[in-house]
DNA sequence: CAAATCAATAAGTGATGACTTATGCTTTGA
DNA sequence: TCAAAGCATAAGTCATCACTTATTGATTTG
């Protein structure tokens, strides 16, 4: 269970480690796009794009929608949740003044 | 300037992509440790540890303190700030959690 | 039906990265 | 002062990864 979470984390970190893949994710965050649309404006080949999409999909960062011979992809920002959780683990080590601010903000939200 | 930030982002993502390096960071988040202390409980060689530390240091994720022949390292959680900023770009898809963190980040930037 | 389009997969290649052992440099302590 | 400890760097090796071209499968269109 903890292991499974760690594995997802690992896939996310690995997926986002590549600059080209981050660029793909960022473009797909702006809106759904077909693979060929995504390819325009990129210097890499179509198979390279497909390969990047497969990695992002495996990490849960993008979702696919098929329509005829087209494949539309969009970013799934909720896929970033495990990454956020990972970062939040270290909030406890952040300076105390930030912790205090956090509490204040949390209070304000309610 | 935006470019510089992007480069730091890239280094952080790359640094955290490796599971061993994440483990090192996590251990150093628990408290300062010398390189040899860090090495105990790890399967890799001492040079490997030093190399990982150099990468983490380059990404701004750990800081070094030298004392005699010892080198003590500790995690710098503020080094994660650019990573949070990156995630924060997708906040429109994350109604509430990120909004709080955004304020925290703003404070950390000072 | 045939040709073209869209996308994934196959297979191979070069670059990058994580490791190793060997070595050097600095500091400590007997 | 000399040996050992602590750590970094050098250099080389092997695995992984991002890319390429070639091909295939599936769908649309002429």
Sum up the structure in keywords:
alpha+beta, 3 strands, 6 helices, Arc Repressor Mutant, subunit A, 110 residues, DNA binding (chains A, B), homodimer, 62% helix, DNA-binding
Write the layout of secondary structure elements.
Two copies of one chain form a homodimer.
Chain A: H1 2-17, H2 19-30, E1 33-34, H3 35-39, H4 46-58, E2 62-67, E3 70-75, H5 81-88, H6 96-109
Antiparallel strand pairs in A: 1-3, 2-3
Helix pairs in contact in A: 1-4, 2-4
Chain A binds a DNA duplex (30 and 30 nucleotides) through α4.
Keywords (chains A, B): DNA-binding, Transcription, Transcription regulation
Pfam family, one (chains A, B): HTH_20
Protein name (chains A, B): ArsR family transcriptional regulator
Structural class of chain A, by secondary structure, is alpha+beta
Q: How many strand units of chain A? A: 3
Main pleated-sheet profile of chain A:
3 strands, antiparallel
- Rg of chain A over CA atoms, rounded to whole Å, is 17 Å
Q: Mean pLDDT across all residues of chain A, rounded?
A: 85
The CATH homologous superfamily of chain A is called Winged helix-like DNA-binding domain superfamily/Winged helix DNA-binding domain
Number of spatially distinct domains of chain A: 1
Q: What is the string of helix and strand elements of chain A?
A: HHEHHEEHH
- Count every helix of chain A, treating DSSP H or I runs of 4 or more residues as helices: 6
CATH topology-level name of chain A: Arc Repressor Mutant, subunit A
CATH-level-2 architecture of chain A: Orthogonal Bundle
- How far apart are the termini of chain A? 32 Å
Oligomer: homodimer
Helix residue percentage of chain A: 55-70%
Greatest chain-chain interface? A-B, 30 and 29 residues
Report the CATH C-level class of chain A: Mainly Alpha
Shape of chain A: elongated
Strand order of the largest sheet of chain A: 1-3-2
Percent strand of chain A: 5-15%
The low-confidence runs of chain A, each spanning 5 or more residues with pLDDT under 50, are: 100-110
Domain HTH arsR-type (chains A, B): 1-95
GO molecular function (chains A, B): DNA binding; DNA-binding transcription factor activity
Keywords (chains A, B): DNA-binding, Transcription, Transcription regulation
Organism (chains A, B): Rhizobium loti
